[in-house]
Write a structure and sequence with these properties.
With 153 residues, the chain is an alpha+beta fold. It folds into two domains: 75 residues; 59 residues, no CATH class. 49% of the residues lie in helices and 21% in strands. The protein has a six-stranded mixed sheet with strand order 3-4-2-1-6-5. Helix 1 packs antiparallel against helix 2. The longest helix has 36 residues. 22% of the residues are buried. The model has no long low-confidence stretch (mean pLDDT 92).
Length: 153
């Protein structure tokens, strides 16, 4: 069985892959919009042309906001020191509870490693906020459930 540093490193890699794929997808969307705009020729139906142009601008703005958001998430991930051990839960903590395992990094959802399920959550998420600052043997209430913190790395 891997030690906690190896597990944290694997989880960090999975989170990095997740956000990199998201950034790549958004960048592709922006590239597609830019290509559509450059291929568009002036139509004789002026109103239809302007509507299309406006729709492209809205798509571009939406994708740009998503890209900046994803880059901020990537920056949060870059702040994590995988080798640090924590007695209190914070960014980069690996937490084992009676209800599941959590990696406090980014909201990446379920991550399975060697048959064990972990949840990649951000410290700003509702459960992340409840766990923040807690330690071994502390409990929190979340969604009507009592969650006991068994281990913190």
């Amino acid at each position: 069985m891997k030690d906690f540093v190896e597990i944290k490193l694997d989880l960090y890699r999975k989170c990095t892959e997740y956000i990199d794929q998201r950034i790549e997808s958004i960048q592709k969307k922006l590239d597609d919009v830019a290509e559509s705009r450059s291929n568009e020729t002036k139509s004789s139906a002026g109103d239809k042309h302007e509507t299309g142009r406006t729709m492209m601008q809205l798509e571009e703005q939406k994708a740009t906001v998503q890209l900046y958001s994803a880059l901020e998430v990537r920056q949060t991930l870059n702040q994590i020191d995988i080798e640090s051990t924590n007695t209190q839960i914070g960014l980069g903590s690996l937490v084992r509870c009676n209800t599941g395992n959590y990696f406090i990094a980014i909201s990446a959802g379920k991550i399975e490693l060697e048959g064990v399920l972990y949840y990649g959550i951000s410290i700003q998420s509702p459960i992340g906020q409840k766990l923040a600052g807690k330690g071994v043997n502390d409990t929190i209430q979340f969604n009507g459930k009592k969650i006991a913190i068994l281990e913190v790395y």
